[in-house]
Automatic annotation (TrEMBL):
Residues 1-19 form the signal peptide. It holds the Pfam family PCuAC. This is Copper chaperone PCu(A)C. It comes from the Bacteria. Keywords: Signal. Transmembrane segments: none annotated. InterPro entries: LpqE-like (IPR007410), Lxx211020-like (IPR058248), PCuAC_sf (IPR036182). The lineage of its organism: Bacteria, Pseudomonadati, Pseudomonadota, Betaproteobacteria, Burkholderiales.
Length: 143
């Protein structure tokens, strides 16, 4: 059974009652010295339709939603304006697929570090945030 690493209520405006997004097993790939970017991986589940549109982190200059996909036998990565979170369906952000890129790293991310990331989610015309504390794991190549 997957461990539930984090269950966070979305930051809501002026006391409005809204649904909560559940983040399961967030993690960041550890880097090597000089590496300027890394990936954040997590499973997100929203009880109502929402859209992941980006985020922020004190360890990176920018945080973006990305996709890896095969194109004519070549793996390609591209930034997305957002990623739909269908109501009640788990969406896995994982290596080689959808993920969050932390770019312009301010320092190396070592295995065992905890990386704070705030994800930005749009739901019902409102922008909400989801706070994560993602442990860094050693791994293979970037994706």
């Amino acid at each position: 059974m997957r461990r539930l690493s984090l269950l966070i209520a979305l930051a809501l405006s002026a006391g409005a009652a809204q649904a909560q997004t559940v983040a399961t097993d967030p993690w960041v790939r550890a880097t090597v010295p000089g590496q300027q970017a890394t990936g954040l991986f997590v499973e997100l589940k929203s009880p109502t339709a929402a859209r992941l549109v980006g985020g922020t982190s004190p360890v990176a200059a920018s945080v973006e939603v990305h996709e890896m996909r095969m194109d004519g036998g070549v793996m390609r990565m591209r930034a997305l304006s957002g990623l739909d979170l269908p109501a009640g369906q788990a969406v896995s952000l994982r290596p080689g697929s959808y993920h969050i890129m932390l770019m312009g790293l301010r320092s190396a991310v070592k295995a065992g570090d905890t990386v704070p990331v705030t994800l930005t989610i749009e739901r019902a015309g409102k922008t909400e945030t989801l706070q994560l504390q993602a442990p860094a794991r050693a791994g293979q190549a970037m994706h």
